[in-house]
UniProtKB/TrEMBL annotation:
Keywords: Membrane, Signal, Transmembrane, Transmembrane helix. Residues 1-18 form the signal peptide. This is Uncharacterized protein. Residues 783-796, 823-842 have a biased composition (Low complexity). The chain crosses the membrane at residues 694-715. Residues 851-861 have a biased composition (Basic and acidic residues).
Length: 861
């Protein structure tokens, strides 16, 4: 509640009558619809909330565009200028504007808050009104200006101390009702100074929100815009570089990392949800910004926040302080050393918003202040000194490590500088309030030396020129003395009570869901790193630190998109080291024992890995798996390499059984720690092993026999088809040799067909008749007709069995017992004179039965 009240008090100088005020420079007065005007209205509208009645009364918005001089003297000429705008949707006729002021100086910083938050009618003195005729129409604007002198306003500096006076302007309608107003402050410096200057030091934040999740791609290209001339980061570097006021830089190594990345190499910008990123050339803007930063920070000390500016309070509350140690490790904070060309020469621990509990402070002291230094915290975390002594910037804090020095930045002053200063008109109010606040610190206790530290918001976005002017006022104001932070740190600490971290702070921290999901990604990334061997080319350490950034507090939607993007990247990379799953997910094992093939591959292009293969049977009673030898179970894979392993298996029955295949982190890998040793890497792969009672040899034999059987059946089917075609053609050919008819020829025994020289067949001679020398057996060497190519004297191959004789023919077979019948005439015997010799083509039987006079006897057709 205290912090909210202070923040609201810092915003209220921009608002009178609890309503937003339009703040634009004079050059834009003729452009009511200009983007700067809209931005100013939107910024101030979000700064405060008014009651319904007040909101209805505030019809005219006011903005200061110039208040000069910044410090009044006796002969100064005061000029206060601004702009008015009709904020209603109707006509406003008869409006007038006048200035109000108080001739009594403010006596405390508390009164500054009262006048800032109050209405202008608290100021008793008024000037002559001026008409506002040009703001009658809705949305119309008109410039206005007042001139005066300190003497005419009766302003002075009593007792030789700075005098701070409230001054305002208000708009009246014809009924003399106030329809708009705004208040600021004037500071008068006496000629004779009877006070001690305030020692003031600036902490200059060079911290940004995150612009990438993975190391490979940015999700926006905002850095190029912020580093370009006129951009937020460019304005901060330029302001520090063009003034002589010393500052202490607070640098986020992640910002330096991003700047160096886009300055040195081409990069990819892939917005969340985009399927493809855009290639960008290396940024000369970033290279120039880094060069300007080196020059601007030369001679000024700097310290680093943990890499990515993590929400250290939330990390400690979720019991993950290891991330703090990693973010403060030299390999991550050393990026700032590379960018700036020198190591950090200040040792300061600055928790987010300057607020932390004892546990967080102990972690920061252990890892960030181990070489000395101090905490940088908000003054709202501590009570004022009990003795009533005005507070200074230096105190001490007790931790388990001992007493640590603590520098407190002024919460109210830092909020005034940070809030409401993005527009030019808001910057005018910020300048006047900054001067008034610091002057009141000097005037409250003129005889005491005071110290104050200003630390703007981490992502401070001041209006153009504002940061430079504030540093200039710091050096030029008579009541201020610019002082290095190290000197304030070395001052004698005041005894102040630490309030601790309020319970309400938990609502501003990173949420449980975000941190839990980030922790889950970190566990998977840790397991991935544990399997890497050789030079480590893939790291998610900085990507995870960027997910811890406090900047995600105000961007929950982007935080979720960042988590999802990094989670997908880790999953895809881990999936590149995998067990190759069979296409159908099945493995056949014949017989009661065998070996199961498993293929492992590494598809990473630049990283070697070592994994351990583990196989588990779902049903150990039916399928038992053997253990691989240790030298085979641990598998080393170079980029793009594959390896196969065979797992012994023994089945007790037939069926389908599930086997679970896993890759584990090898315990011997030096990259694995005690939290990853013995942990599974990646997802479980499931295959189905089908076991049968047949061994492999039995299956081969059975398959071979079936193949022979199928070939034989096919050959017989082809022959039968040919025979049917031949018979259908009518030539009597079967395609299987000689056709065979009822009338026998050579090679076929039949009645009355005999002759010497036919093996195994006796041919009895006919009574009174004999065979001539040229008979059937003449010239045949002891055998029947020879097959083509058969050597002489070789036994004749048995021919096909004779077909049954046709009608009227004698039956074949052995001759009946008894006297043999008379043989045929010589002219009827085949082989007699005028009968050709049998051919070797298997058709001799057909040609031999025709006479020479038969013309068909030539070719047997």
């Amino acid at each position: 509640m205290v912090r909210r009240a202070v923040a609201l008090a810092a915003l209220l100088p921009c608002i009178t009558m609890a309503a937003p005020t339009v703040l634009i420079p004079p050059a834009l007065a003729s452009s009511p619809g200009s983007p700067d005007l809209a931005a100013a209205e939107g910024t101030l509208a979000s700064a405060g909330r008014a009651t319904g009645a007040q909101r209805q009364r505030v019809q005219v918005g006011l903005a200061f565009t110039q208040v000069s001089p910044k410090t009044l003297h006796g002969n100064s000429r005061i000029e206060i200028s601004g702009i008015a705008k009709n904020r209603t949707e109707g006509q406003l006729a008869g409006l007038t504007i006048r200035m109000r002021y108080s001739a009594q100086p403010i006596t405390s910083r508390g009164q500054l808050d009262q006048f800032s938050s109050g209405q202008t009618n608290q100021l008793p003195n008024v000037t002559q009104p001026q008409p506002l005729t040009n703001v009658a129409a809705p949305g119309s604007t008109q410039n206005w200006s007042f001139q005066a002198t300190p003497k005419s306003l009766r302003l002075s500096a009593p007792n030789g101390t700075p005098g701070v006076y409230p001054v305002g302007v208000e708009v009246l309608n014809p009924a003399q009702q106030v329809v708009g107003g705004l208040t600021t402050f004037l500071t008068f410096m006496p000629q004779k100074r009877l006070f001690k200057p305030v020692s003031i030091s600036w902490v200059w934040p060079l911290i940004d929100r995150m612009h990438r999740t993975t190391d490979g791609a940015f999700f926006d290209d905002q850095l190029t815009k912020d580093m370009a001339p006129g951009g937020r980061l460019n304005r901060l570097v330029s302001a520090a570089g063009t003034t002589a006021t010393p500052v202490t830089w607070a640098v986020d190594p992640a910002l330096m990392d991003d700047a160096q990345r886009i300055a040195s190499d081409p990069y990819v910008v892939q917005p969340f949800g985009a399927k493809k990123g855009a290639e960008k050339e290396k940024s000369p803007v970033a290279a120039r910004w880094l060069s300007d930063l080196k020059t601007a920070s030369k001679g000024d000390p700097y310290f680093t926040v943990p890499y990515g500016d993590p929400d250290v309070v939330a990390l400690v509350r979720h019991k993950t302080p290891r991330d703090i140690a990693v973010a403060l490790d030299a390999r991550n904070t050393g990026v700032a050393t590379q960018a700036l060309g020198r190591p950090a020469d200040a040792h300061v621990a600055w928790p987010p918003s300057g607020a932390a509990g004892p546990g967080t402070l102990e972690q920061l002291a252990e890892h960030q202040l181990k070489r000395g230094g101090s905490f940088l915290m908000s003054s709202s975390q501590f009570q004022n000194p009990a003795s009533g002594t005005p507070p200074n910037a230096t105190t001490a804090l007790q931790t388990k490590r001992g007493v640590e020095k603590t520098v407190l930045y002024d919460e109210k002053l830092s909020q005034i500088v940070s809030q409401g200063s993005r527009s030019a008109a808001g910057g005018v109010l910020t300048e006047q309030r900054f001067l008034a606040e610091t002057a009141m610190i000097a005037a409250e206790t003129p005889n005491l030396a005071r110290s104050v530290v200003v630390a703007p918001d981490r992502r401070w976005d001041p209006a153009p020129g504002l940061a430079e002017r504030l540093l200039t006022y710091t050096k030029d104001a008579a009541w201020l003395r610019e002082t290095p932070l190290k000197k304030i740190e070395a001052a004698q600490p005041q005894a102040r009570v630490f309030n601790g971290l309020p319970d309400s702070n938990v609502w501003h921290e990173l949420g449980d869901a975000h941190l839990a999901q980030t922790h889950d990604i970190a566990k998977r990334a840790s397991a991935f790193r544990a399997v890497m061997t050789g030079d480590i080319k893939i790291s998610y350490e900085r990507a995870l630190l960027r997910l811890d950034s406090v900047a995600w507090r105000t961007m929950p939607a982007r935080a979720k998109a960042a988590r999802d993007a990094l989670s997908k990247q880790v999953k895809d990379d881990m999936g590149s080291v995998r067990i190759v799953h069979p296409k159908n997910g099945r493995v056949l094992m014949g017989g009661s024992s065998g070996r199961l093939p498993v293929l492992i591959e590494n598809r990473l292009s630049h990283q070697s890995v070592t994994v351990r293969l583990v196989a588990t049977s779902e049903n150990t009673a039916k399928l038992r798996l053997g253990q691989l030898p240790p030298e085979e179970a641990v598998i080393e894979l170079r980029p793009g390499q594959r390896a196969q392993r065979w797992i012994p298996a023994k089945a007790s029955g037939n069926g389908n059984f599930h086997v679970y295949l896993e890759l584990w982190v090898p315990s011997s890998n030096p990259n694995s720690d005690r939290n990853t040793k013995g942990r599974r890497f990646g997802d479980v792969q499931t295959i189905t092993v089908r076991t049968t009672g047949y061994g492999r040899l039995a299956l081969l034999i059975t398959g071979g026999g079936l193949a022979v059987l199928f070939v034989g059946v096919g050959v017989r089917a082809i022959r039968a088809r040919r025979r049917r075609k031949a018979e259908a053609a009518g030539d009597g050919s079967t395609g299987m040799g000689s056709a065979g008819t009822a009338e026998q020829g050579y090679g076929y025994a039949g009645p009355g067909f005999a002759g010497p020289g036919l093996p195994g067949v006796e041919f009895p001679a006919a009574p009174g008749a004999g065979l001539p020398a040229t008979g059937a057996g003449a010239g045949l060497p002891g055998s029947g007709p020879q097959s083509p190519g058969q050597p002489a004297g070789a036994p004749a191959e048995p021919g096909p069995a004779p077909r049954p004789a046709g009608p009227g023919s004698a039956p074949t077979g052995p001759a009946p017992a008894g006297p043999a019948p008379a043989g045929p005439a010589a002219s009827d015997v085949p082989g007699a004179a005028g009968v050709p010799e049998p051919a070797a083509d298997g058709k001799a039987g057909r040609r031999g039965r025709h006479s020479a006079a038969d013309p068909r006897g030539r070719d047997g057709d």
